[in-house]
Design brief:
Blueprint: E1 3-15, H1 16-30, E2 37-42, E3 65-70, H2 73-86, E4 94-105, E5 120-121, E6 128-134, H3 139-148, H4 161-177, H5 184-194, E7 199-205, E8 212-217, E9 222-227, E10 251-256, E11 268-271, E12 276-281, E13 284-289, E14 305-307, E15 312-313, H6 329-335, H7 337-345, E16 349-350, E17 359-360, H8 369-373, E18 378-382, H9 384-401, E19 405-409, H10 410-416, E20 425-430, H11 436-447, E21 451-456, H12 462-466, E22 469-472, H13 485-501, H14 509-529, H15 533-543, E23 548-553, H16 558-572, E24 575-580, E25 597-602, H17 608-620, E26 624-630, H18 634-637, E27 644-648, H19 656-674
Parallel strand pairs: 18-19, 18-20, 20-21, 21-22, 23-24, 23-25, 25-26, 26-27
Antiparallel strand pairs: 1-4, 1-10, 2-3, 2-4, 5-6, 6-7, 7-8, 8-12, 9-10, 9-11, 11-15, 12-13, 13-14, 16-17
The chain binds 6-O-phosphono-beta-D-glucopyranose.
The site of 6-O-phosphono-beta-D-glucopyranose has 17 residues, from helix 9.
């Protein structure tokens, strides 16, 4: 996924330096979405105000400036200031009205290179410029048509067809309408009729100075509005009007792929919905809803309709997106798990008392619990770490709900077109709520009539909006690409879900109350296991030069083995494999020798004795073991210090994966730092993959 950003100042004087800084900071906040190339566009000089110009006069003179650079944001910043100096552009030049756009890329079509970076342009004149997040699936057909009409393409991107299509439509309209002005919205509405695929777009055009148009289908996009003298960090400056003050009032507008790049400017936002064209012009915003669907008998799509929408207030603090005293976001997010878990459980655990049993309240699900209890199956669907969190929760879901639980990796379910029945409950787990494979699986499951439930960490995300009901994990913004605190909060939410579904079964009351007690105490236990930080750093120093690492787990901790190995793969760039311990003798045992480091998760639960025998078999083959065991078990699992031990606090078995993953998160973190790799933006990865 890419990050797109736009900034418009209306009637508020801003120097070019300030405008550049706002665009660069916007990109820095979105860099976790993609970081292989970036670009911005600003105006060359003071354009006359948009109302003064007809769309022809100004356009012939000065074109917007476009700066693009391969590499991360800081390489773009450096090259922009070099270019600005070379062009003798005055950074103190002030603009009372200006519209700038920016983009940070995660390459899908066309390698990371300056020509493939955004903004993509309509041509040398930069008449139309576009920044895009998503994939245009019919771009080749559109490209052929545009080439036949004389357009030449300079990039391998799918995006380049969009600004060129805008110019084609603009020129056509002018031929047809003569001097009749064509509005920016009209051009973009026409463009959207031809585009297929997921997209969030921001358009800038020299024909419409100081205006931006944002529109989307599938990929996320928000608008932030800052009135004059409003200060995001001081609630009292927020006028509590949920509607925009009238047009022409001095304002600043921020467009962004997510709230991270808006919250430092304002908390007043508007989530742009699918098939909406949002036009920022003259200090005002107009929204047109369009429907591409052809009418009956292929009749033309209905006319776009104007939409009034209220602003909402972001429940997010700037601190959440700052590193604080930590060096990396991943490190911060690992260490803030006691707080994120507390927030995840806030208002959802009922302590009970003499008259009332301990229980769980999940407001977003209470009207659907009966249906879920009667389900034919519960199907967990997700990708990456989210899939592993669901896998860690399967045993307790089966135990407390009594409903068979099936696991599906989203892409595999789609490849197989696996069976989904209308009596099924399909639970979609996604931190970002925007992962394309999970979204497509949601579409597939809802087409098959299943009850679709969402578990996400992003309010207003596509999965949150397209599922019938769900639970927000409220872990706070997660910026490190390798997911950590979201994983532990996802497991806790699914444990609470199992408790809620099983809430009417007397036979499991004692078990449920024990788990609820365990949940209340979990943040403290996580604080305790975080004290292993230095020990994990030491272990990382021992493993720094290793090529490979195996992690054995079973029962609740098969997921811990998969997730631990995934973290080491994702950030430390070391081959590592999570293996179901029960499968050891059926192949993996062949890999065991005195060199290959092997982590065995052997904390106390129903599988403990089996894991003890696994350790003996590995010892018998001189395995190089690192055993994770419950506090006080070191001597029994590794007699005579025959291996390295990681002792962790004991909690309820279904909550133990929350504890056991923390030392492996810390190990992966320290290995990455010691091996000199990028912790927060690992090679070739993105926080959420919004393309298939
Ligand atoms: C990957 C991320 O792109 O997507 C992983 O790098 C994540 O950390 C996976 O687990 C699934 O993302 P999500 O947002 O659907 O949980």
């Amino acid at each position: 996924m890419c990050g797109i950003f736009g900034y418009v100042n209306c009637g508020i004087c801003r120097e070019r330096r300030h405008i550049l800084q706002v665009l660069f900071n916007g990109l820095r906040r979105l860099e976790y979405r993609g970081y292989d190339s970036a670009g911005i566009s600003i105006d060359d000089c003071l354009p006359p105000s948009s109302s003064a110009t007809s769309s022809t006069s100004f356009s012939t003179s000065r074109s917007p400036l476009v700066f693009r650079q391969e590499g991360n944001i800081e390489s773009l910043v450096k090259s922009v200031y070099e270019d600005v100096a070379a062009m003798e552009l005055n950074l103190e030049e002030s603009f009372s009205d200006h519209a700038g756009i920016a983009h940070t890329r995660w390459a899908t079509h066309g390698e990371p290179a300056t020509r493939n970076s955004h903004p993509q342009t309509s041509g040398a004149e930069n008449e139309f410029l576009v920044v895009h997040n998503g994939v245009i699936t019919n771009y080749e057909v559109l490209k052929e048509t545009l080439v036949r009409h004389g357009f030449t393409f300079e990039s391998e991107t799918d995006t380049e067809v969009i600004p060129k299509l805008a110019k084609f439509i603009f020129d056509k309209a002018h031929e047809a309408e003569g001097d009749q002005p064509v509005t920016f919205s009209q051009v973009v509405l026409e463009v959207m009729k031809h585009l297929e695929g997921a997209c969030a777009l921001i358009f800038k055009s020299k024909h419409y100075p100081n205006e931006l148009i944002a529109c989307k289908r599938g990929s996320p996009l928000l608008l932030g509005v800052k009135e004059l003298n409003e200060d995001a960090s001081n609630e009292s400056t927020l006028n509590d009007s949920k509607f925009l003050s009238k047009n022409g009032q001095p304002k600043e507008f921020f467009l962004s792929s997510d709230a991270n790049a808006i919250v430092e400017h304002t908390k007043k936002v508007l989530v742009i919905e699918d098939n909406e064209v949002l036009h920022i012009k003259d200090g005002g915003v107009s929204i047109l809803k369009f429907d591409n669907a052809r009418g009956i008998h292929g009749a033309a799509p209905s006319r776009p309709s104007s939409v009034q929408r209220a602003l909402s207030i972001l429940e997010m603090e700037v601190e959440q997106i700052n590193k604080g005293n930590y060096e990396h976001y991943m490190q911060k997010e690992i260490h803030e798990q006691p707080e994120s878990l507390t927030t995840t459980m806030r208002g959802r655990l009922i302590r009970g008392g003499s008259s009332k049993a301990k229980s769980v309240l999940l407001g977003g699900l209470k009207d659907h619990l009966k249906t879920i209890r009667r389900s034919r199956r519960i199907v967990f669907i997700g990708c990456g770490t989210s899939y592993n969190a669901a896998l860690a929760s399967r045993p307790i879901m089966e135990e407390l709900s009594g409903v068979p639980v099936t696991m599906e990796v989203a892409s595999d379910l789609l490849d197989r077109q696996g069976p989904i029945y209308r009596e099924d409950t399909a639970i979609f787990v996604s931190q970002s709520g925007e992962t394309a494979d999970t979204l497509n699986a949601l579409e597939y499951a809802s087409e098959n009539g299943a009850l679709c439930v969402g578990i996400t960490n992003t309010v207003g995300s596509a999965i949150a909006r397209r599922t019938v009901c769900g639970v927000h994990i409220n872990a706070g913004a997660e910026i490190g690409v390798a997911s950590t605190k979201a994983y532990t909060s996802q497991i806790v939410v699914m444990a609470m879900l199992a408790l809620a579904i099983g809430g009417d079964t007397m036979s499991t009351q004692a078990r449920r109350e024990a788990i609820i007690d365990g949940l209340f105490d979990l943040p403290n236990k996580v604080r305790e296991v975080l004290k292993l930080d230095a020990e994990m750093k030491e272990l990382a120093e021992l493993l720094i030069a290793e090529q490979s690492l195996l992690v054995f787990g079973r029962g609740y901790n098969y997921a811990t083995a998969l997730e631990g190995a995934l973290k080491v793969k994702e950030v430390a760039l070391m081959h590592s494999e999570g293996i179901l311990a029960g499968e050891m003798k059926h192949g993996p045992l062949a890999l065991v020798d005195e060199n290959l480091p092997i982590v065995v998760i052997a904390t106390r639960d129903a599988c403990f004795s089996k894991q003890q025998s696994v350790i003996q078999q590995l010892h018998a083959r001189k395995g190089r073991l690192i055993v994770m065991c419950s506090k006080g078990d070191a001597a029994s699992v590794c007699p005579g210090n025959s291996c390295r031990v990681i002792e962790v606090p004991i909690v309820e078995d279904c909550l133990q994966p929350v504890i056991n993953i923390v030392p492996l998160q810390l190990l992966a973190y320290h290995l990455t730092v010691l091996r000199g790799y990028n912790v927060d933006q690992p090679r070739n990865l993105a926080k959420s993959v919004t393309t298939e």
